Amino acid sequence: MNRFPKFAVLISVVVWLAACASSSPDVIARGDAQRMAQVQDGVVLSVRTVTVDGNQSGVGAAVGGVVGAIGGYGGSGVQREAQVLGVLAGVAGAAAGNAIERISTREDALEILVQLKNGDRRAIVQAKGTEALAAGDAVIIVTTGSKVRVTKAPK
């Protein structure tokens, strides 16, 4: 019985779930709901587009390695060639799985430079949200625990 299709589905699910993870300022983590947050007023000095590099948690490499090893081995007995092929395919699968995880979790973001009312400056990197921020915009910096986000100030 060939188990390769089951593992191909598994790696597809892992990649899909990784792609769904977001650091968007429009999405609040469940643990941050109903918590007091510190708010600071400021003005945007500049906004530039950046890319947040993807994760390399090892999940992609592990799943890719297993899929590659099983696919490369092919289940055709204990022949030495099949074992070597399985190991080589496992290594290649791990490298591919790692690259897929890293690419699928990469995210477009903004680096926002803000000047606070007291003159201090802060640089915050956050995922692109629905609000378009530009130099001169009045904003608030919301800090909840160690997480920070920038949003337009209410008028």
Give the structure's gist in a few sentences.
The protein is an alpha+beta fold. It contains three helices and five strands; from the N terminus they run αβααββββ. The longest helix is centred in the middle third of the chain and has 25 residues.
Describe the protein.
It is a single chain. With 155 residues, this protein is α+β, with helices and mostly antiparallel strands. The protein folds into two domains: 1-23 and 54-105, no CATH class; 36-52 and 107-155, OB fold (Dihydrolipoamide Acetyltransferase, E2P) (Beta Barrel), CATH 2.40.50. The protein is built from three helices and five strands, in the order αβααββββ. It has helices at residues 4-20, 59-73, 80-104; strands at 38-52, 107-116, 121-127, 138-144, 147-152. A hairpin with a 2-residue loop joins strand 4 (138-144) and strand 5 (147-152). Helix 1 (4-20) runs antiparallel to helix 2 (59-73) and helix 2 packs antiparallel against helix 3 (80-104). The N and C termini lie far apart (65 Å). The model is unreliable at 15-19 (pLDDT under 50).
Strand content: 25-35%
Percent helix among the residues? 25-40%
The end-to-end span amounts to 65 Å
- Spans of 5+ residues with little confidence (pLDDT < 50)? 15-19
| Rg result | 22 Å
Question: How many discrete domains?
Answer: 2
Question: Could you tell me the mean pLDDT?
Answer: 74
Structural class by SSE content = alpha+beta
Q: Total strand count, please?
A: 5
Topology as a string of helices (H) and strands (E):
HEHHEEEE
What is the count of DSSP helices, taking H or I runs of 4+ residues? 3
Biggest beta sheet summary = 5 strands, antiparallel
Task: Please tell me what the overall shape is.
Answer: elongated
Spatial strand order of the main sheet: 3-2-1-4-5
